[in-house]
Recover the amino acids of this structure.
């Protein structure tokens, strides 16, 4: 199976040179948030409420024209059909193929191998403990799914090890019986320093415990099976990735082996089905009713026109705590670029910083800044209409808090309203006039509300695909490649040399700055 289509790598026109951009920017600056407008889109069973975003008929029209100028339909087709949409690495980004209802034979065969391994392990009740070793895209998606559907506990214990800090692998192995532990190493290249070092420590742990054949208790998930084989992993325990699966999209691949073992194969199957439904919506829904497209355009307005530097993710569901770092990696690794595909500098602000935590904890942490801070940030509120616990009043309070915070961001509170409230509560007039200034909410701060019927594998899969396609559209408009991550590589190269210098195995690089040189000398072992 080959996923390539010739792509023009000279890149699109500079964004600000387009008349369509000028029209879009002009329309965005004259648009506003209308508290009386209701704007709903249903996509793959998820309701997206964009009522909290700035809007006008002119802006909607200008957005359509801008997408047309960027060749949206042709680029979307390339993405979904395995064309080369990652020109700097000469690859497709065909993660949608991994969740297709009728996948290509090679994908289907690998999926079948995965399910057979899971079925055998489950039927024999093997591997009470799993140590999942990966980092970034090989880690966050699995953490998210296991926490979302195993929050109340499962019969298998799972520890995640990502960080190179030795405390991470020490804690990951602690308390487990080596003879009943499966070590899953997920690394696309099988050269990731953190994963290989942590995997080596896990191997030594198995050997020290007298495990007869420790490699039979290790799994490799990689696009480099030969490298994993050389490392010692048997063929039956090597599961394949493909070069056209980016790390931050690898959740849809065999990387989810740990998910299936922890919370069942039905979970990954359901997530794939939900994501495929969102793929279909993205491919077929009209522009004005296309949820990823409309989210992307709002994001462009908020970042590149209105100047918001960040995006807050506020899932009002305890089980989705790991959704924040998952989307953080997806968006910031994809859109944290300042050079367009042609190599020219992008002349508008691109990818915002993404941050957040679940509500209601978030309300007691940073919502003060969201409401009254000088900068503020757009917010994506995420709720589930129905809970899966037996305390309906808890859920009503949770939903009320989400809706209240969004309403406060949207409507705000005027000085006169704040003053009247102070007076009505019995505060003396002079004090009330002073205090009212501190109780004003500016309002008009943009937000989305995303409503899942309930948290299920299907809806979580659809939600993740919604953000994936949103990121693709934003990258297309900005003219950047959302599928590479060269910004990560330079630090890795420097760290390789510095590791040897700290060990005394290599003389200090004369090109070091003064501070780095001082600390290498100070910290050398």
């Amino acid at each position: 199976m080959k996923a390539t289509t010739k792509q023009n790598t000279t890149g699109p026109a500079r964004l600000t040179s387009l008349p369509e951009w000028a029209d879009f920017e002009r329309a965005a600056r004259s648009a506003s948030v209308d508290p009386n407008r209701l704007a709903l889109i249903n996509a793959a069973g998820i309701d997206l409420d964009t009522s909290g975003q700035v809007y006008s008929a002119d802006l909607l029209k200008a957005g359509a024209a801008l997408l047309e100028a960027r060749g949206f339909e042709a680029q979307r087709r390339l993405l979904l059909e395995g064309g080369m949409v990652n020109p700097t690495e000469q690859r497709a980004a065909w993660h949608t193929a991994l969740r297709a209802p009728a996948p290509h034979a090679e994908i289907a065969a690998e999926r079948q191998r995965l399910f057979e391994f899971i079925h055998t392990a489950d039927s024999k009740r093997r591997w009470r403990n799993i140590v999942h070793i990966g980092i970034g895209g090989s880690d966050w998606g699995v953490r998210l799914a296991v926490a979302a559907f195993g929050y109340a506990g499962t019969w298998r214990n799972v520890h995640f090890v990502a960080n190179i800090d030795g405390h991470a692998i020490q804690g990951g192995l602690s308390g487990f019986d080596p003879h009943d532990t499966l070590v899953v190493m997920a690394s696309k290249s099988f050269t990731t320093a953190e994963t290989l070092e942590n995997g080596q420590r896990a191997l030594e742990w198995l050997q020290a415990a007298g495990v007869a054949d420790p490699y039979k208790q290790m799994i490799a998930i990689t696009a480099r099976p030969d490298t994993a084989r050389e490392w010692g992993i048997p063929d039956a325990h090597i599961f394949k990735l493909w070069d056209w699966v980016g790390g931050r999209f690898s959740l849809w691949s065999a990387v989810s082996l740990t998910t299936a073992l922890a919370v069942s194969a039905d979970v990954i199957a359901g997530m794939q089905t939900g994501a495929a439904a969102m793929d279909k919506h993205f491919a077929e829904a009209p522009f004005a009713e296309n949820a990823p497209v409309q989210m992307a355009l709002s994001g462009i307005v908020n970042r590149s026109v209105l100047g918001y530097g960040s995006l807050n993710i506020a899932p009002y569901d305890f089980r989705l705590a790991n959704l924040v770092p998952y989307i953080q990696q997806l968006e910031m690794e994809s859109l944290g670029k300042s050079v367009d595909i042609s190599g020219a500098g992008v002349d508008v602000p691109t990818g915002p910083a993404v941050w957040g935590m679940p509500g209601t904890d978030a309300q007691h942490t940073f919502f003060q800044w969201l409401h009254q801070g000088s900068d503020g940030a757009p917010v994506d509120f995420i709720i589930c209409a129905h809970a899966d616990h037996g305390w309906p009043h808890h859920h009503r309070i949770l939903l009320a808090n989400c809706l209240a915070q969004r309403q406060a961001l949207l409507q705000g509170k005027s000085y006169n309203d704040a003053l009247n409230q102070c007076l009505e509560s019995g505060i003396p007039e002079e004090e009330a006039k002073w205090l009212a200034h501190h109780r004003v909410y500016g309002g008009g701060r943009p937000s989305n509300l995303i409503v899942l019927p309930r948290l299920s594998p299907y809806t979580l899969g659809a939600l993740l695909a919604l953000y994936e396609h949103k990121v693709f559209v934003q990258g297309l408009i900005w003219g950047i490649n959302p599928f590479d991550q060269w910004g990560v590589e330079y630090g890795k190269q420097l760290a390789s040399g510095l590791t040897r210098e700290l060990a005394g195995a290599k003389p200090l690089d004369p090109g070091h700055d003064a501070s780095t040189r001082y600390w290498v000398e100070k910290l050398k072992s």
User: Anything to note?
Assistant: The longest helix spans residues 457-478. The first strand starts at residue 40 and ends at 43.
